[in-house]
Specification:
heterodimer; A: 479 residues; alpha/beta; Peroxisomal Thiolase, Chain A, domain 1; 9-stranded mixed β-sheet; two-stranded antiparallel ribbon; 21 helices; B: 173 residues; mainly beta; OB fold (Dihydrolipoamide Acetyltransferase, E2P); 2 domains; 3-stranded antiparallel β-sheet; 2 helices; 9% helix; globular
């Protein structure tokens, strides 16, 4: 679609407020032969039921509230199991309530939340379970890469290398050479993202790939598809995560500290090839900024330096943010939010997303990292960042168990906004649970006074994107 | 644990390969063949085998023009994404020879399983004047650069009937 009508662009509405009340997850590993997928999902559910200060006496009383369930698992061929949602629903003992499986590639977790939230917002259910999982360890890594590449167009893209990283690298190369002017500084910014996210993973007992690495380590790691190297890429994981969404009345029956939940979705073509040039849908703070509009006219105007969204932007992410900001009243994300969890499938797509969701104007994404804004504490200056991103470690440091990813992000945001990050990350018991030693250089990553957070869940080379926004009830912008 | 390290009294040794005993981990081999159709896109793939590059365009006068870059779609679409009318096939081989350029490119070093392209492979995205889209393909025999002028090469001798029958090389002056 090239031209939008006002109907197309209308602000999405929830017919009644939705709250996120509880969350749980397994730990995440590349290979997890010790446990079946079903066991990992039960683990996430038990954490959700028993460790979120819910006003219920155990799992069974909580199950008495649940009215429908939404399950995200993307890749049937990885898990070698069709209708996994029925299997998990049975293991959770939630029959005979209705359930549905949701799959939209890397955005499966986000889309599962989207469907679950809509069920509450519409009045269909007062209390729903949104759970996601993935099992990616039944095949070797290169078969896994082929499986992932089958999420590209099989006749037109997959044949060309059977490697999804390659399809992202085409974007990275274009971005680097146009916006990045082929500068080594841009390569360094990409590396800093990997260093940051692997570093944050060191303080996350659930995380698969904690590592204290340097920019040089990233830049010496093996090339997967030039310019993307091993450390530029996200993980393949096994694990599960879950959240509980409720209407207002049920939320306060179950919890003294529920958090408002909003979510919106955007989309774009599966093949990057099909992305026709179009005008940029402006976000609220871009509308009001003559400087940014001038910059866009220079980048994408008649003397076109670049196509929009072309190979440098994700229209789906732009639209998800566009709808979500319209829905919640967010004007400038850097001003209005306290932390974000972004879909860092690759360091390059992380930078592209900064621009799509308005953390920086198009063409200026690297500044979000270089300015220190994206850190909890800027390692260069020791100053607090304005809007820390991916304190979980993200997809690069924590996990990408595809169906669980978008839900894990919201779980982490919930605990941050409730001031309970510490409970789930800092206690020795949590590290022992996963047979890990709490590292000597453990950092406290609780964002002080965090009131609002955002999560981006992203599929394909930008085919589906959801934007979740969490706000503490006293910090809701649009009453 | 090596393959076939375990045998069972009641099982043929080839029946199940055990990778671990605790937890019990077994192999589940399979090698299915999918029978796949190109359907309405058949002319494109047959065209490659004959040395012709085919694209489609919408000729419905009521269709809102499809983008600012041009009107051809490559990959071709059978149905117009805007008005849903059938699109019309057109030979753009000459157009591509005259105007194709590299929009972006990468080198693939490590392919996924089942890959048939010799490695390393120069993956390119191709912009062509009058074409609204940017085709993914491969460059052979040269190091790609953004903006490089290129022309199509067709595998007509022993076609694979896949997108691999199309590649590109630097345009002869």
């Amino acid at each position: 679609m090239i031209k939008f009508t006002q109907r197309n662009l209308a602000a999405p509405k929830q017919m009644r407020p939705v709250y996120v009340v509880a969350a749980g997850q397994s730990d995440f590993k590349k290979r997890y032969p010790e446990k079946k997928t079903e066991e990992l999902c039960v683990e996430a559910f038990r954490m959700l039921a028993l460790e979120n200060n819910l006003k219920v006496d155990g799992v069974q009383e909580l199950k008495g509230y649940i009215h429908s369930a939404f399950y995200g698992h993307f890749a049937d061929h990885f898990g070698d199991q069709l209708l996994g949602e029925a299997l998990i629903h049975d293991r959770l003992g939630l029959d005979p309530m209705g359930n549905v499986g949701v799959k939209t590639g890397g955005a499966t977790g986000g889309s599962t939340l989207w469907m679950a939230a809509n069920a509450v917002a519409s009045g269909y259910s007062d209390c729903v379970l949104a759970m996601g999982w993935e099992r990616m360890d039944e095949v070797d890594t290169w078969t896994g890469n082929h499986y992932i590449a089958t999420a590209a167009d099989k006749d037109w893209e997959t044949e060309l290398g059977h490697i999804y990283t390659g399809y992202y690298a085409l974007m990275a190369q274009r971005y680097w050479k146009t916006f990045g002017k082929s500068s080594p500084a841009f390569r360094r910014t990409m590396s800093k993202i990997s260093v940051k996210n692997h570093g944050y993973a060191c303080s996350n007992p659930f995380a698969q790939a904690p590592a204290r690495i340097t920019v040089e380590d990233v830049e010496k790691s093996p090339v997967v598809a030039d310019p993307l190297r091993f450390f530029d890429c996200c993980l393949m994981s096994v694990g599960s995560s879950a959240v509980l969404l409720c209407d207002e009345k049920t939320a306060y029956e179950l919890s003294d500290d529920p958090v408002r939940f909003y979510i919106a979705a955007g989309s774009h073509t599966l093949r990057t090839a099909d992305r026709r040039h179009m005008e940029i849908p402006l976000l609220p703070h871009e509308h009001d900024n003559a400087e940014v509009r001038k910059q866009y006219a220079e980048l994408y105007g008649d003397e076109k330096v670049e196509r929009y969204p072309g190979f440098t932007g994700f229209l789906a992410a732009r639209m998800a943010a566009y709808y979500a900001y319209a829905m919640t009243g967010i004007h400038d994300p850097c001003e209005d939010l306290d932390l974000v969890e972004l879909h860092d499938a690759f360091t390059i797509s992380d930078i592209q997303t900064y621009e799509d969701i308005g953390l920086r104007p198009y063409g200026s994404g690297p500044d979000y990292i270089e300015s220190g804004d994206g850190y909890l504490v800027d390692p260069r200056t020791g100053k607090r960042g304005r809007l820390p991103s991916n304190l979980s470690g993200g997809l690069i440091g924590c996990m990408h168990a595809v169906g669980a990813t978008g839900i894990m992000q919201v779980a982490e945001l919930l605990w941050q906004l409730q001031g309970r990050w510490d409970y789930f990350h800092a206690r020795d018991e949590m590290w022992q649970r996963y047979s890990k030693a709490k590292p000597a250089d453990f950092e406290d990553l609780q964002v002080p006074e965090a009131k609002r957070g955002l999560a981006i869940s992203h599929a394909g080379v930008g085919s589906h994107v959801t934007c979740s926004i969490l706000m503490r009830p006293e910090a809701v912008i649009r009453k | 644990m090596s393959k076939h390290a375990y045998t069972f009294d009641n099982l043929h040794p080839d029946a199940t390969v055990v990778r671990s005993l605790d937890p019990l981990v077994v192999e589940k081999p399979r090698a299915p063949v999918h029978v796949h159709t190109y359907g309405g896109e058949t002319p494109f793939f047959m065209g490659l085998s004959k040395g012709i590059l085919l694209a489609t365009k919408c000729e419905n006068p009521k269709c809102d023009p499809s983008g600012k870059e041009g009107y051809f779609h490559l990959p071709p679409r059978v149905d117009c994404p805007d008005c849903m009318e059938k699109m019309v096939w057109e030979d753009i081989t000459d157009l591509a020879r005259r105007t194709a350029r590299i929009h972006t490119h990468i080198t693939v070093e490590h392919p996924g399983a089942f890959n048939r392209v010799p490695m390393p492979c120069e993956l390119i995205s191709v912009e062509i004047e009058g074409v609204a889209t940017i085709l993914m393909s491969q460059l052979k025999g040269a190091k790609p650069e953004i903006g490089m002028e290129i022309e199509p090469v067709f595998n007509t001798r022993s076609p694979t009937f896949t997108i691999l029958d199309l590649s590109w090389k630097p345009r002869r002056k």
